[in-house]
Task: structure prediction
Amino acid sequence: MAESLPPLNALRSFEMAGRHLNIARAAQELGVSSGAISQQVHALEKWIGCRLFQRSNRGLSFTEAGQLYFEAISKAMDEIRGATRSVGRPEIRKNLIISVTASFAMKFLLPRLTDFRSLWPDLDISVSTVELVNEFNPSDGDVGIRYGHAHQANMWTREILRDELMLVASATLQGVDGRPLSLENFTDFPLLMDKHPSVIQDYPSWQEFLKNQGVEDTSHLNLREFSQQWMVIEAAINGEGVALAKKCLVHTDIASGKLVAIGAQQLSLNSGYYLLTLPENANDPIIKSFYRWIEKTVAAL
Result:
């Protein structure tokens, strides 16, 4: 009778966890949850009858048996991959094109994309930008991120972020009388705005935001309009005025000290960011990995 073998999924999970010595990284690379990786590794340990990893707050380390087993399994998995390639099975995709709005690309995605690249070091990842109001078209890329309300038919769509608006400005901003910027006097400064209120349904204008905060007289406002929100944010960094910006787009600049939040007022938005791809791409391991990565990245804000 042939000797039985452990389940292939358990072996794949163990090998990937062993490559990274990190459950979360292994899960992202395989496009599954961390819990699924942990369950598969535990099942393999139970099947074999010994511990393969030591677990601690710092991550994973091999037991002696685990190290020996990993060396053998990783060689075997490499041989399986080589054999599969030799008979002509298409390899995993070599590139990923991410189509996003310019502001999301510049102020959110690009400052963080190195982390995703580290998960797929052999993958050619490129970013293309579109205007704020622009439906995702497969010719734009492999996966798209759009802002607004989910409405595109015949697409696999997931909301990844429903954000808030907040007041931000340069910490060096001062009025003509030398008074420092504060919650009490920020409307004396130029108020920077973009085209969101005119093109996104239910997106609040400066006037609506201020009325929500109890400011009824908005006739005296000094508004400066820019075509995109990344321009508004850069203008605020340069001390041109006060910006009303999405929290996700200014998070990095606040953390670096380029911007400061004015007060604690935040206004929840009815619109959000959505990830889209063709339905037949929804189970692509790289696209699944990107979706899980960006979900985790957003959750960390």
User: Anything to note?
Assistant: Residues 170 and 259 are 5 Å apart (CA to CA).
